[in-house]
Amino acid sequence: MTSEISLFVNPAAGRGRGAHAAQSAASALRTAGFTVSTVLGLDAEDALRRARGAVRGGTGALVAVGGDGMVNLALQAVAGTSTPLGLIPAGTGNDFARALALPVRDPAAAGRLVAAALRGARLREVDLGRAAGRFFGTVLASGFDSRVNDRGNRMRWPTGRLKYDLAVIAELAAFRPVPYRITLDDGSPLHTEATLVAVGNGPSYGGGMRICAGADLGDGLFDVTVVGDCSRATLLKVFPRVYAGTHLDHPKVTVHRAAKVELAAPGTTGYADGEPLGPLPLIAQCVPRAVRVLVR
């Protein structure tokens, strides 16, 4: 394995933490004897083009510095190749790193872990989801949570967590369950009224919200969490339980497992790794062992 490593950086991640995290990670990697180059882009499209160029050029690893959005971009470059992916979490969610039990608060420690993993060839092959021509690592969300994202993306003020909280309040006032058509693998479609449907390759989204708490990155299957036709009062009781994953015991919640899922619902956007995929219908396919990740 070459000692030349590419840091794929979003300097603005975590409201500026990305730039500091990149410096800490680069220092740890150089101390371990690696040559580090930085991959930046003018925008997401340009950044992905440059990352793919680094992979084609034979970089020893592509190390994503940022949040789940940056990891999602990196996945498009390394999925299906032999190039390992390293993670230096610096965003607000960092759910893919959480699923792999990697450091999410200490960029220097994450950099040392990546260096040690490269030296020891400590790699784990994990599954990815694929929908609308894009890979994703954590959860494809639709319904109440995606409407919160839609609303938050339209809001110019405030910023950060407060914007998300205000979007939740606004959606609670306006939201009604919507009719879904859910097709698992090649079976008959399930028609149901649902508050949200989440397709989990990994267990969590939104910074540790364990919406698909039983999802396993290595089993070749999605966990599909369906929250039924909740009233606002029920949703207020159930939603806080998502952080512990105990919402799965609620009678309004069902979980299915499948390698392929088709979701259709009117007026509903799908988000994967927090990034918009577009309106439903969408088909998600689990791709086994699609990426090699540097781990403990």
Automatic annotation (TrEMBL):
Cofactors: Mg(2+)
GO CC terms of this entry: plasma membrane
Biological process, per Gene Ontology: phospholipid biosynthetic process
Keyword line: ATP-binding, Kinase, Lipid biosynthesis, Lipid metabolism, Nucleotide-binding, Phospholipid biosynthesis, Phospholipid metabolism, Transferase
Pfam families with a match to the protein in the record: DAGK_cat, YegS_C
InterPro entries listed in its UniProt record: ATP-NAD_kinase_N, Diacylglycerol_kinase_cat_dom, Lipid_Phosphate_FormReg, NAD/diacylglycerol_kinase_sf, YegS/DAGK_C
GO molecular function, one term: ATP binding
Domain DAGKc: 1-135
Family: Belongs to the diacylglycerol/lipid kinase family.
Designated name of the protein: DAGKc domain-containing protein
Source species of the chain: Streptomyces sulfonofaciens
